[in-house]
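Example 3.2
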Amino acid sequence: MIKSKYKYNEKSDYIALSMTKFFRFIADRFFAKRYGHRAVVLETIAGVPGMVAGVWMHFKSLRNMKTGLGDYIKEMLSEAENERMHLMFFIEIAKPNWFERRLVLIAQIFFSIFYFLIFITFPRTAHKMIAYFEEEAVTSYTDYLNMIESGEIDNINAPKIAIDYYELDLDAKLSDLIIKVREDELHHSKTNHRYADINSKNIVKKSNEKSLISTIKLQKFSNSIISMETNKRS
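Structure, written as tokens:
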């Protein structure tokens, strides 16, 4: 059961929460406490939303010829890249078999289509859903960490790729890696909650946004004035 510190202010929040519970139910049935394998599949899916949002808003910026979306695009693409790296870490740890690799492929295809449709039609709901996903990820990684600390799971050495990425000590353990990954997921949760709230009022307010077309027209007008002044002097 998700116990989010954020209040459910709109119907979309309940929809997002319901979808999160549904996906959590499936994950529990498939993987139970096999957290390494669970992470492989879920991090594959987790890398989708940021890329979908970033690319869609990138094209929106190009289509509308407006600035103001740069920070949002960078944040979303950064999230996608971060989740991709999480996947690389846990592939080294879990060593997924052929069935799990096929499952990853199928899950990624279906979730990509599903999230794309949700995002372009109900962006607030999409961001809220991912925010709740990330809260669940924080809970799952906390459970994973507790099992390591209790001795139920071996605290093996962290993969070199993770040590390089997070600049960990060379003797860093799996528990050190999970703490770092959990911090990332918490950040993503807060970010998506924030963008969901901004989305209800539009990510970029038109009054604060500069149109590239207007900028070009202004530049041409300024150039024409300068040219006229130059001709008068000559």
